[in-house]
Amino acid sequence: MGCAKEKENPIQENFVDWVHALVTWKGYSYVYKDETVPASTIGEKIGEVDAYDNQGSRGYNDEHVFSNRYPVGSELFQLKDVPESKSITVLHDGVYYKLDNSQP
Fold first, then answer.
1. Calpha distance 89→45 (Å, rounded)
2. pLDDT of residue 9
3. Are 49 and 23 in contact (CB under 8 A)?
4. DSSP secondary structure letter of residue 7
5. Are 51 and 8 in contact (CB under 8 A)?
6. What gap in Å lies between CA 20 and CA 1, rounded to an integer?
7. Is 85 exposed, middle or buried (0-12, 13-18, 19+ CB in 10 A)?
8. Among 11, 30, 78, 99, which residue has the fewest nearby CB atoms (within 10 Å)?
9. CA separation for the pair 43, 39 (Å, rounded)
């Protein structure tokens, strides 16, 4: 019996090392901060992710709700008493995550 060599992981040539996990909505980039928020603070649904890419192979623009973390169909919501220009939330696997606007 010989020793089996472990299979090496292939290099992903198109992999993009994103600085932040993000969602773009209405021309703004909202950055994932690993902060959850309780359902009692959630306002109205404002949209959902319609373009996903974590490889950087596709561009995105203001017409799409894009994410490099959350899959197509992930729902976006307002936070009660917080302007959408400051923060929004995304519902993923039953948990609401806060996303902060990356622009001042």
1. 9
2. 36
3. yes
4. P
5. no
6. 47
7. exposed
8. 11
9. 9
How buried is 89 (Cβ within 10 angstroms: 0-12 exposed, 13-18 middle, 19+ buried)?
A: buried
CB 102 within 8 A of CB 24: no
Q: How far is CA 3 from the centre of its chain?
A: 43
The pLDDT profile of the chain, 104 residues, written as one tens digit per residue, is 455 444 443 333 333 444 578 898 998 999 988 899 999 999 999 999 998 877 655 555 567 888 888 999 999 999 999 999 999 999 999 999 999 998 86
